[in-house]
């Protein structure tokens, strides 16, 4: 069974975070817990301490990871510890005098994306930085653990791996050099070759195309893509936009309000085509007319790196 989606709230107290330079992600359980029945879970009281029958002892800690753009990702991840450490933590957890002196050493018990199995089992030491928070994992033992804590990682590459809603916009790789901005608060999934983002009342779908006709001009390939779309209305009444891209490419969008959906909804269809025949298509659906500016922003965020 997959680990349920982490939340974008404080890993310690669950309150929403307002500082976009710090992004908190919380893992609900150690990965091994999903292989065991719920009856195997034992807790001495604090929700951050968990014993699993036949699988060991675990403590939730905060793993800070530095990202580009002066952003910090703080992971509320689980660490497997020995029984002595587990019992000691339970004894001092609510002791205002003893808790600040707690030191934890164990192995990461979540296959944290994008590091996955490379990070899983990394040995780390945690200490108390703030008596109101969980232990912070501040020291790595071994090359992988040291890299995880010590290096500065690409912000978008890391955050795009988390499919649950994030409090910041994240540029998402679509493949073949193409990328698009996933708006703050949108969940993400990839299904049937399509990247999909969604939040209440709004959704985005992005996909790639490759022209099979050698040497065709971008404008002609664009015409073919538009002609293949059965949703293309016959009369747009000015609700379209054509722009030139650097290096000879072209991008185009049209939008309209379907009259047969039974509920308020607006749609924007868009394409971007490069001279080599690589193209990206975008579909935005939104319930409020005022969100049209958002849909155009997502369209214009679509780009391809050399």
Compact description:
This protein is mainly beta and 306 residues long. It contains five helices and 19 strands.
Distance from first to last alpha carbon: 39 Å
Q: How many helix segments?
A: 5
Looking at CATH, the homologous superfamily of the largest domain is Mog1/PsbP, alpha/beta/alpha sandwich
The structure class reads mainly beta
Beta-strand content estimate: 35-45%
Q: Helix and strand layout, with pairings?
A:
Blueprint: E1 22-26, E2 41-42, E3 49-52, E4 56-67, E5 71-81, H1 83-92, E6 103-108, E7 123-127, E8 136-141, H2 143-150, E9 152-153, H3 155-159, E10 170-175, E11 178-182, E12 187-191, E13 194-199, E14 202-210, H4 218-227, E15 240-244, E16 250-256, E17 266-273, E18 278-286, H5 292-301, E19 303-304
Parallel strand pairs: 1-5, 4-9
Antiparallel strand pairs: 2-3, 3-4, 4-5, 5-6, 6-7, 7-8, 10-11, 11-19, 12-13, 13-14, 14-18, 15-16, 16-17, 17-18
Summarize the structure in words.
The chain has 306 residues and is mainly beta. The chain has 2 domains: 22-155, no CATH class; 169-304, Mog1/PsbP, alpha/beta/alpha sandwich (Protein Transport Mog1p, Chain A, 3-Layer(aba) Sandwich). Helices cover 14% and strands 38% of the residues. The strands form 3 sheets. Strands 1, 2, 3, 4, 5, 6, 7, 8 and 9 form a 9-stranded mixed beta sheet that branches. It has a 7-stranded antiparallel beta sheet with strand order 12-13-14-18-17-16-15, with helices on both faces. It has a 3-stranded antiparallel beta sheet with strand order 10-11-19. Strand 7 and strand 8 form a beta hairpin. The longest helix is centred in the first third of the chain and has 10 residues, at 83-92. The relative contact order is 0.10. Mean pLDDT is 89; it is low at 1-18.
């Amino acid at each position: 069974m997959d680990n349920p989606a982490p939340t974008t709230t404080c890993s310690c107290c669950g309150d929403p975070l307002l500082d976009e330079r710090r992004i908190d992600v919380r893992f609900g359980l150690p990965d091994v817990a999903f292989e065991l029945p719920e009856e195997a879970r034992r807790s001495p009281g604090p929700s951050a301490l968990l014993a699993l029958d036949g699988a060991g002892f675990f403590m939730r800690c905060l793993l800070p990871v530095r990202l580009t753009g002066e952003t910090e990702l703080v992971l509320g991840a689980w660490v497997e510890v020995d029984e002595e450490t587990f019992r000691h933590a339970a004894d001092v957890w609510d002791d205002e005098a003893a808790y600040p002196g707690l030191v934890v050493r164990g192995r990461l018990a979540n296959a944290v994306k994008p590091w996955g199995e490379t990070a899983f089992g990394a040995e780390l030491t945690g200490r108390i930085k703030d008596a109101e928070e969980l232990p912070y994992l501040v020291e790595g033992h071994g090359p992988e653990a040291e890299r995880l804590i010590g290096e500065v990682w690409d912000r978008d590459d890391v955050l795009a791996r988390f499919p649950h809603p994030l409090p910041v916009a994240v540029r998402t790789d679509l493949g073949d050099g193409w990328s698009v901005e996933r708006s703050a608060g949108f969940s993400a999934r990839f299904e049937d070759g399509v990247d999909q983002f969604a939040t209440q009342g709004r959704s985005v779908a992005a996909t790639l195309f490759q022209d099979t006709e050698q040497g065709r001009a971008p404008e002609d390939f664009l015409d073919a893509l538009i002609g293949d779309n059965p949703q293309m209305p016959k009369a747009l009444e000015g609700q379209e936009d054509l722009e030139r891209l650097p290096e000879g490419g072209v991008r185009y969008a049209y939008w309209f309000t379907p009259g047969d959906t039974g509920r308020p909804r607006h749609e924007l269809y868009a394409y971007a085509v490069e001279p080599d025949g690589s193209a990206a298509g975008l579909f935005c659906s939104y319930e409020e007319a005022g969100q049209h500016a958002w849909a155009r922003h997502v369209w214009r965020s679509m780009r391809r790196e050399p």
